Amino acid sequence: MSRFQNFTELRASVEERGGILAVSMADVRDAGEAKRLRGGIRERLERALQNEGLGQLPPEPLPNDQNKVIRVYSRNSDLGEIVEAVLHPTDIGDERLRAAAGSEAGQAVEQLEAIREILDEAA
Fold first, then answer.
1. What mean pLDDT, rounded, does the chain reach?
2. How would you classify the pairing of strands 20-24 and 69-74?
3. Which residues face 23 on adjacent strands?
4. Rounded CA separation 79/96 (Å)
5. pLDDT tens for residues 32-45?
6. Distance from C-alpha of 82 to C-alpha of 96, rounded to nearest angstrom
7. pTM of this structure
8. How far apart are CA 18 and CA 1, in angstroms?
9. pLDDT digits 0-9 by tens, 81-109
């Protein structure tokens, strides 16, 4: 029994998992209602992922081994926007990466300050 009946179900599962999900090529094949993973079929499956707003990692042609695991991500999620900014560099993508790095750095500083306050109170 396949995990996904179609790419809409796959997309919903990706979104439920925070925008990225590890799936086997057998799952991708089944979502695309394919029987095999030959060249032309893999290209069709890649287009179907793209049409559903999904991307795959690694960003190379889909493997032909049904046991291989890839990462499928939602291109419109926060995580997907970061992945897309790395894979397809643009000035806007650079700004997105800077903002993501800045917010994480800012959160780390806030956490360190909170820890310092707790330690100071305990001393």
1. 88
2. antiparallel
3. 70
4. 11
5. 999 999 989 999 99
6. 7
7. 0.80
8. 24
9. 989 998 998 999 888 888 887 776 667 66
What is the Cα–Cα distance from 59 to 52, expressed in whole angstroms? 16
* Amino acid, single-letter form, for residue 95: E
> 115-122 — which CB contacts under 8 Å span 24+ positions?
none
Domain ranges of the chain: 1-75, 89-123
Q: Where are the alpha helices (DSSP H) in the chain?
A: 7-16, 25-31, 39-51, 78-87, 91-122
- Apex CA 14: angle with CA 111 and CA 96, to 5°? 50
Tell me how far CA of residue 17 lies from CA of 14, 50, 51, 52, 54, in angstroms.
Answer: 5, 18, 20, 16, 13
Total residue count of the chain as it appears in this document? 123
Q: Is the pLDDT confidence value at 46 over 80?
A: yes
| N-to-C CA span, the chain | 59
